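>> received
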Amino acid sequence: YERITKEFKRIGYDWHPDHALYMNVTRLIVESKVRGVRVDREKLQAYTVQVEAEIREIEQKFLNALAGPIEEVQRLKLEEARAKYKTEKGRAGAKVDEFNPGSNKQLAMLFVDVMKMPVQFTSATGQPSFKKAHLHTWGDGGEILLARRQRLLVLKQAQNLLKLSEADGRWHVSLKTVGAASGRFAGGG
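>> returned
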């Protein structure tokens, strides 16, 4: 304290107004921890339902836009599944799940194997990258996947906020120091 105030005095900085402001904000953070912020759970739940519908709509747009290549991926997956069986009966009963736009393996089959698009970015394992930052490199299909990824993030956040309010219908701030020498508090979820 003495070292810091001495340094402030040396540079001509009056720290008293900032200190007063900090103390008032600290009181608000502590109050938020104790009382919490009331949540309209019904509206938040309705919002999650709306975002889920938007995600399904985006996925359908993706499936429609790339219907031909996706059909070819499904055919290749079915051939692969049938090859695992030794009997004709087993091969005849082979099935594959619907195309999953969240599966990097299936996206690689779609864009690289079937659509013959060049791989511009790879993951640490050397596979084609479908990270958010790289989706634009996969053309219009990648742009649709980016929209899907963004809505999935919003959905996850809304679901997490609902969970945080389960106990009493409120969000309560947690208090933690942020690692500063002064030990300032920061609010978190």
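>> DSSP finds seven helices and four strands in the chain.
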